[in-house]
DNA sequence: ATAACTTATTCCAATGAATTTACTAAGTGA
DNA sequence: TCACTTAGTAAATTCATTGGAATAAGTTAT
C-alpha cells in the first residue's frame, strides 16, 4: 500500500513545465519556441520564459533561423549536447566500468578498473576520481547500475552477494563525498532505462529488455515507468521454470531458464560436448555459427527456444510490443533471434505475436553505464514519461 | 512511443489538490481538516477551501468533534457515502448484470438481464433505464466491464467476439444517450480495479488478479496503475503454454493454461471421468471436496499446480506481492489455494515466494460491476494513484 | 517600392491558487 | 482567571500562467 500522491504547488507546476519544454526541445532536435508551444499546449509566453532559463543554464542554445513561412522566421532551439556531462557507473562482478557521457548519450570518456579483491567501495571512489579529473564540463551527477537487490528510492544496495554489500547506503556515501546527485538501480533495470532513453525503442510506453549473460534478468517499462517490484526484485526471470524436470539450478529448483538459456549455460555445455584447450567464448560461438557448425547451432537453438517460451509468457501477460535482448548472448544477433521468434510464435497468441517486435540491443557493452547515466538524466532533467 | 506529458496549469493543480483532499478524507474515514493538511502537506488554508467545496458538492459531511487534545477540538469530516451513486455494468457472455453502488462500493440496487439473442446494445439500454428509474441520488456516471479487446482511452470495444461487437464506440453512444460520463475496460482489468479499490489489497502498488472462469485472464496493477498493454491485450495469460505437449487449445496451440486450469477444463474433465446425469457444477465440486473425493481432489490439485506455475512466472517477472484469485474457480477457496501455494514455492525463488501473498477474492459475483464502478470513481473523483 | 499580411516573439497587466501572517474559536491545565 | 494549546478562518502576498497588445522580421500583392 502506497501513500497519497504529492500535492501540486506552484513550484511543482513550474518545474514540470520547465522540464516539459526541455523535453520537447530534446525530442525535437531543432525546434522553434512556437512549435514547442504547439507541441506542449503551453502558451508562447510560458515557453519563452522557460527557454530563457534554459539558455541561461546553458542547457539549450539557439542554432539559427528556420526558413520563413510567410512571417518572421522562427529561431531554432536545440539542446546543448555537452551542456552537462553525466557519470555512469557499472559495478560488474569482476570489474568496474565508468563512462562520462553527454546529454545525448555520446561517450566522452571511458575508464575501466579490474577489481583487485580489496575494498570495492575504495576502488569505486578511485574510478570516479579518475573520471572527474579529466572532465571540465559541469557534471550533472552520478548514476550507478549494480547487480543485486537495490532500493532505488532509498539509494541503498540491500543485497549484492558478489560485492559483499549488504544494506549499503551508497547514494548518501557518494552524495556526501562528491556533492553531486546520485542515483542507483539494479543493472538489469538500468539496461532497460538505457534502451528506453538512448535505444531504438526510445520512449516506448511498454518495453521489456532481457539481459542474458551469466544470469538472466529483465528490465521492464510499463506505462512509461520502470517496474521495480514490491521488494525491488522485478525482472528475476532467470529462475522461471521452463523445463519441469531439468537441470538443478543454483537456486535449488530444477529447470530454471538460467540453466538452459544463459550465456554461461551455453558455454558450459559446449565445454562439455566439444572441449577445447581454452574454455569456449561467445566470439568462438559466433565464428562456429558463421561456419554453420551443427552442434553449436543446435545448442543456440535450444537456448533460443527456451528464451522464446519465457518471452511468450511476458508478452501474454503484459502485451508489451517491444522486446529487446541485451547481454553477451545478444551478440549472436539473428542466429539467436530467428529460432527465438519461431519459439515465441509457438507459445503465444498469434495476434499478440504478430504485433510484437523482438530485437537485439545496439548499445553494446556500455549499456549499463549508459543506462545508469540515463537514470540520472531522467530524475534530474525529467527526460522521462509521467 | 507515447507523446509528451500534459502541461501543468493552475486548473490542473487545483483539481489535483481538490482530489487529493477528497482522497485523504476517503481513506481517512473520519478525519479533521488539520490532519488532512498534515497528511497531504497542503496548508490548512488550502484544505479548508477545498473542504468547503466538497461540503457544498455534498461529497463530504461534518460528522462531529474529535476529543480535544489540549486545544480546540477538531471537526471530523467524512465522505458522504451516498453522496453519489455509480452505475456498474457487467456485459458477460450470457447475461447483463448491472448494479448501482455508492462511493464505498455498497450495493444499492442490482438488476440482471438474460441475453435473449437479440441486439445486445438495446438490452443494455434497457438495463440502464431500469437502474436509473429506481435511483434518486445524483448519478456520477456509468462504468462498464466487457470481455474482449477494449480501448479504454478511446472508449471503444475493438473486439468482443461473443457479443458480436467490433469497433463499437460504446462510450460515446452511452454518453450521448444518458448525458453521463462513461468509462469502459476489459472485464479482467476491471476485476483488478475492483480489488484495488474495494478489496482486501486496497491501494497495493502492485497487484495481480487472476480471473479463472471459462477462460483465464489477469488484471494487473503496476506502480499503482492498471496495465493495459500496447494493444489493450495485457493479462491474456490463459494462453501461456504450461504443458509443452498438452491438449489442443481453441487458440491453436497445445497445453495452454486454459486447457488445464480453467473452470470449464476442470468441469469437462469431471464430466468425462465421473459422468453424472447433469453436467458438473462448481458447487458440486465444492461438495465433493468437502467429502474428500480423491478423483475430484486430484483434478483440482492439477489445476492448482499449473496455476502455480503461471503465478510463479508473474511473481518472478513483476515481483508483485499481492496475488488474488477471482472467478468461479476461486470459490474453491483453500482447497485451491493450498496446492497452488505448494506449486508456487516449487517454481519461483524462495525469497520472492516468502513475501508473496496469494488470496482468494472476497468480492463475490458482483466483482465486475464493482470494478466497473471503481473505474468510473477513479477517473471522475481521482480515487486512484498517480 | 510600398502596403498589407503572416508568423514569431516579447512585454505587460490580469488572474487565481497557494502561501504567509495574523486572527478568532474553543478547548485544557495551573 | 490566566496561560497555553490546537483548530480553523480571513486578509494580504506571492508568483506562474494567461490573454491581449506591441514589436520584430519576414513574404506577397499591387
From TrEMBL, chains A, B:
Q: Which Pfam families match?
A: ROK (PF00480)
Q: Give the CDD domains listed for this entry.
A: ASKHA_ATPase_ROK_BsXylR-like (cd24076)
Top-level division of the source organism's lineage: Bacteria
Entry's family note: Belongs to the ROK (NagC/XylR) family.
| Record's protein name | ROK family protein
Which source organism? Herpetosiphon aurantiacus (strain ATCC 23779 / DSM 785 / 114-95)
Amino acid at each position: 500500500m502506497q501513500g497519497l500522491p504529492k500535492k501540486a504547488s506552484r513550484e511543482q507546476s513550474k518545474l514540470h513545465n520547465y522540464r516539459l519544454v526541455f523535453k520537447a526541445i530534446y525530442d525535437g532536435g531543432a525546434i522553434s519556441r512556437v512549435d514547442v508551444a504547439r507541441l506542449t499546449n503551453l502558451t508562447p509566453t510560458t515557453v519563452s520564459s522557460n527557454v530563457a532559463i534554459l539558455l541561461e543554464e546553458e542547457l539549450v542554445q539557439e542554432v539559427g533561423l528556420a526558413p520563413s513561412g510567410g512571417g518572421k522566421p522562427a529561431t531554432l532551439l536545440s539542446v546543448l549536447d555537452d551542456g552537462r556531462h553525466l557519470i555512469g557507473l557499472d559495478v560488474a562482478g569482476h570489474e568496474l566500468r565508468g563512462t562520462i557521457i553527454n546529454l545525448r548519450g555520446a561517450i566522452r570518456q571511458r575508464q575501466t578498473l579490474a577489481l583487485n579483491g580489496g575494498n570495492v567501495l575504495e576502488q569505486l571512489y578511485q574510478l570516479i576520481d579518475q573520471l572527474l579529473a579529466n572532465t571540465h564540463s559541469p557534471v550533472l551527477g552520478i548514476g550507478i547500475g549494480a547487480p543485486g537487490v537495490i532500493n532505488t528510492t532509498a539509494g541503498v544496495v540491500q543485497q549484492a552477494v558478489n560485492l559483499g554489500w549488504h544494506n549499503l547506503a551508497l547514494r548518501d556515501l557518494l552524495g556526501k563525498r562528491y556533492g553531486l546527485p546520485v542515483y542507483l538501480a539494479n543493472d538489469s533495470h538500468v539496461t532497460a532505462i538505457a534502451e528506453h532513453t538512448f535505444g531504438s525503442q526510445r520512449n516506448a510506453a511498454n518495453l521489456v529488455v532481457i539481459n542474458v549473460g551469466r544470469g538472466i534478468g529483465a528490465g521492464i517499462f510499463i506505462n512509461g515507468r520502470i517496474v521495480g517490484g514490491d521488494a525491488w526484485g522485478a525482472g528475476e526471470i532467470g529462475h522461471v521454470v521452463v523445463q519441469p524436470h531439468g537441470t538443478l539450478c543454483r537456486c535449488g529448483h530444477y529447470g530454471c531458464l538460467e540453466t538452459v538459456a544463459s550465456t554461461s549455460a551455453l558455454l558450459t555445455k559446449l565445454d562439455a560436448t566439444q572441449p577445447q584447450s581454452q574454455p569456449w567464448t561467445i566470439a568462438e560461438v559466433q565464428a562456429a555459427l558463421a561456419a554453420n557448425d551443427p552442434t553449436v547451432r543446435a545448442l543456440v537453438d535450444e537456448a533460443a527456444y527456451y528464451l522464446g517460451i519465457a518471452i511468450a509468457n511476458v508478452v501474454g501477460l503484459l502485451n508489451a510490443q517491444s522486446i529487446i535482448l541485451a547481454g553477451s548472448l545478444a551478440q549472436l544477433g539473428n542466429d539467436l533471434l530467428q529460432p527465438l521468434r519461431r519459439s515465441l510464435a509457438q507459445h503465444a497468441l498469434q495476434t499478440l505475436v504478430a504485433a510484437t517486435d523482438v530485437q537485439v540491443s545496439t548499445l553494446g557493452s556500455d549499456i549499463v553505464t549508459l543506462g545508469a547515466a540515463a537514470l540520472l538524466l531522467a530524475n534530474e532533467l525529467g527526460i522521462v514519461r509521467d
